[in-house]
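Two entries, shown back to back:
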Amino acid sequence: MPSTFHSIETAKRSLFTQTAALNTTGHNIANANTEGYTRQTVKMRASIPMEAYGINRSNVPGQLGTGVEFDAIERIREKFLDSQYRGENTELGSWTIRSNTLDKLQQIMNEPSDTGIRKVLDNFYKSWSDLSKDPESVTARTIVKENALALTDAMNHMSKQLSNLSADLTSNVEAKSSELQSYVNSIADLNQSITKIEGLGDNANDLRDQRDLIVDKISKIVNVTVTDTDQGYNVNMGGQALVAGFTPTTGINGAYLQAAFGSNDLQGGEVHGMIISRDQFVADYTAQMDNLANTLANGNVSVTLPKGSVLPEGTVLNGVTYTGTTRTLQSDLTVTVKGLNGLHQLGYTQESKDVNGNMVAGKPFFVTSGTGGGTITAGNITLNTVIVDNPNAIAASLRVTGTAPTEELVKGNNTLASLMANLKLNNFTSVSTGNTATIDSFFSSMVGQLGIEAQEATRQTQNATALVSQVETMRQSVSGVSLDEEMSNMIKFQHAYSAAARFMTTFDQLLDKLINSTGVVGR
């Protein structure tokens, strides 16, 4: 038989349950705009009925219900969507960095423009053409010198910008490693707190939200997989554990992530994009610029020396040494010289004669900066200081008259200056790759490659952004807070609470009648 106060207890359970539901609704509404928050719901169920199966059960027909109760407050979340989101977020992180780096490289190249390397090269060749029109002009020689300095300065500056970009990417890897270490430590701490709370039978919903949000942020930095265990999340990057229950991995730094990239454990995320950007994109264009500078200065190039040209004493071309009377070419001679430097050393300057009375041959036009010498690169290429100090050291002529010690420069001869100007159209053999093309073509190829890579990175970034947005929309449709829905729930729970309170009041009146008014007739 039910207790006399059975209905009071039923109403009380309803009031408690609807209050919990209203409180949870208010919590959802308050966190509608909180990053990483997952909407929560109260799991209601009918409480155990009055009459259980047994030999002494009441003969009263039916099982009298005892009202409602809730056994948990749960998050509404799908692990599949979380996993899908993190995978797409990892791709987005990597492609975003790559796209940004390639955009910066395009700004460094600054092509096509009126201030880029191509324009400086055109001005350099044009100055040689102008010198060929007046080879005796000090002004024309000075213009050649200044355009050469502008060319080397442009290459030096571009090389420095590429070096700075590489250094920035390295420092960013270090910064991201510190951020990753902080996140890893936080997850281990949250694992411990969640395990303690849930060991008491409660759901640590808000702490779980914090942990999932941190994992989402980690997925933007590196690729991760997550396994939920009795001790919380185990977070792995490829085959390397970042978090194992309550234990975080320590010592995460740039070297750690670089090693993970080398072992193929690091396959995505912003750090992955940074390392690819630095070690592939920036390194490749740095190498191409170095090759361009060295090829211009020393790359094999075929030129035709006109009949009557007089080579400097002791010159070796095509395996033949030219000396004495053989220095004067009896016919056109096609030879391969070592770039602009090699060609410049075949001509004569307006300087004084050497100790033997021969005219002074041209010096190497481009050299390395400093005193170390070595291979010419975009970072160290510079104009020979002899030419910087004296533009008359620029060789423009291939003709002399007489013999030592009475040898004299043929005034007004422009043969070498014309050959220099025509190098714009000549094919050079790349010092590093062996490919053959004009200097302009080498540079155009580099610019074209950069444009295609940047376009592809932009496309991939846009695709990844769309996929992340799509998955996030699906996640929000499941886990996000809808204010309209919460308002509807609030009204529903409010009415349920009011009805339960009214039921309690009604039964209180019945009990009052029973207790205080029954059996008073005839007193």
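entry 2 starts here
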Amino acid sequence: MRRWRIQRLETRLILWVLAFSLLQVVLFATLGQYLLERSVREEAGRKALDLAQLVAELPQVRQALAAGIDSPAGDALAPFIDHLWRRTDADFIVVGDTRLRRLAHPQPDRLGKTMQGGDSQDVLAGHALVSEAQGSLGFSVRGKAPVLDADGNVTGLVSVGFLNRSVESIAAGRYLQWLPVVLAVFLVGILSSLWIARRVRAALFGWQPHEIARVFAEQSAMLDTVRSGIVALDLDGWVQRSNRRARQLLGVTTSQESALHLRDLFPDQAGFLLRDVEQVLDGVELYAAGQELVLFRRPLRVGGTVRGVFLSFRPQDEVAHVSQQLAQVEAFAELLRVQTHDYSNKLNTLGALIQMGAYGKAVELIGLESQGHQAMVNRLLDSTGEPLLAGLLLGKYHKAKEQGVTFEVAEESVLDAAAPKALLERLVSILGNLIDNAIEAARIGPRQPARVRVTFDDLGDHLIFDVEDSGEGLHRERLEALFRPDYSSKSGRQHGVGLYLVKTYVSALKGTLEVGQADLGGARFTVYLPRRPTDEDNRS
């Protein structure tokens, strides 16, 4: 048989708060009743003692006890005490001699008999007291005071008391006065349970506990199965959660996760990643934990407010490798588009020249075009000896040409083809970013014609590359911020990472990067790279 369980969180909260409120009410009532009854008994004892001491000071009482129980004064004491007793709210006033024989009692048939309770010996010794004992009228709270003669000798005692039923009746009457307070507490508990249930439901977006548990389990399984590393941070940069892949990539254990800060994971990029957290970052390439990572950042919003940062990253040599291939395909497609557009214009010109009968001019145009393009191809292959690098430079040549920028490869440039594959792959990224920036700077610069010059050479165990442009140049105050991930002189969320990426790659290859003034008038970037990458570079 399936066990019935309450699923709705609101119902659970209401029942829990009501049960807690009811428990509070019961405990409050029980404790209140105990304290109230105790207070009433203490008050009754003080009142009884005060009245007993007052009666013990009366001349009629002293004279009757001095004369004795069978004297006329002793016989007259009972009516006097009875009259006095009826004017008080005490249940009894009893007067006894030193032999505990009663001279006054509410019930006349008990006059002359011995007082009960066993609490009179201290009184006969001269001490007033309050006690609770079983007397002839029942259990009572009573105050007892000694009666002294003129010489200070004890001649008897006075006992004034309140029966237990009277004390309980007084306590019950006062407790009824507290009943509205108890009910008000319970009512507040009911209203607070409803309010808490609504607030909790709103905070959880209406989700129920079993739904949250299922989603949490599904999320954990999904996070641990994806190939990307995922890290959730609060706004101060402390790690809130990470998946298994992130811990593997960054060398972090599960026990360390709760005490980690972003600085422990990305020490060089933590400041950049925690700035402008509402801005989306896509495909930022970083160097951390001895490897190159492609990182994405998203703000974590709760109820429309940014409450944290969500990072995902992966090694560049995994899915990023596919992205690089796609980028190369796009670059080739763009190159074909440029060439198609350029050749279309030239074919139209050739067609017009042929129709006009200017065959000589048409042959001359064909020769110039073929000679210029083939000369560039031959020059690149002769100087580099590496098709990958030659393809990169040829693509940048056509890109520059389309944008009206003259692209030059210095005649003295030469590069041995024996460079390692790992170095060449990163070299393509380094030169690609530097040349793109140079083309853009020359295009918008003040000098005409716009020019970009690339120079490369072997120098022992090092490779040297120069990229110069005829642009505006670099302002000295911008040099410090030039290689920050968040710096850019252009608009768009993905701009500003090119030079940072160049610096990252150069550092990973144990090389150096220098910035200076170019002979063309603009900026010059010089890269020095060791020919053989380190073992760490080969692994990444």
